[in-house]
């Protein structure tokens, strides 16, 4: 269980960290080539992160079921469900940018908040993994 949490932490820092960086480059860069590259890679990288986190959630739920532990009573499970739900909202926001450009700011703030939530989630997961 600890190894799963370490792998998800690597996904969080590598994919989520670089994906977040690319999001900031989209907003802040003056270089059109850099912006184009970031606009292409940012959604792909974070979609892959979402996919791996969803797989991790499936594995975590399976581990809890097979060890006769309650599924949604741990803070780790709660932060995971909240995080995946917020990532779903985050995915929808770009489709609304054209009609409401102010949502770009919401998207950036929400993305930063989600990354913070997943840092807390990682700490709770490590704590949970060490308790087995």
Automatic annotation (TrEMBL):
Gene Ontology terms: cellular component: membrane
Database matches in Pfam families: DUF4079
Origin superkingdom: Eukaryota
InterPro entries, alphabetized: DUF4079 (IPR025067)
Keywords linked to the UniProt accession: Membrane, Transmembrane, Transmembrane helix
Listed Gene3D superfamilies: 1.20.120.1770
Membrane-crossing residue ranges in chain numbering: 6-24, 45-65, 77-97, 109-130
Record-given protein name: Uncharacterized protein LOC120269277 isoform X2
UniProt organism field: Dioscorea cayennensis subsp. rotundata
